[in-house]
Amino acid sequence: MSANANGTNGGSPGNRDVLALFKKAAFEVDNKKFDNLSLGTSISDLGLDSVAMLELIGYIEEELNVHFPDEDLARLQTLQDLSDLIGKVSSAN
Length: 93
Description:
Helix content: 40-55%
Structural class: mainly alpha
Oligomer: single chain
CATH architecture: Orthogonal Bundle
Number of strands: 0
Number of domains: 1
CATH topology: Non-ribosomal Peptide Synthetase Peptidyl Carrier Protein, Chain A
Shape: globular
Strand content: under 5%
Low-confidence stretches: 1-10
Order of helices and strands: HHHH
CATH class: Mainly Alpha
Largest sheet: none
């Protein structure tokens, strides 16, 4: 197993790492820079279209070597929700 961009071999990243990973993914897939993100940030307020969001989620799944169930993705509203989902699927592996 190779290390991902966070230098870990899977597992659940901490909240700060989730914010950094989201920022990196947004820049990589949609060339967007987000400087002032918090776990309370509403994903819908970020101006990402549906295609960019799907690509961003795919990027995160690939980086963390996880898969997010569609029903869980449909409920994402904030970056805290994303962090919780990452923790959920990481602990299930």
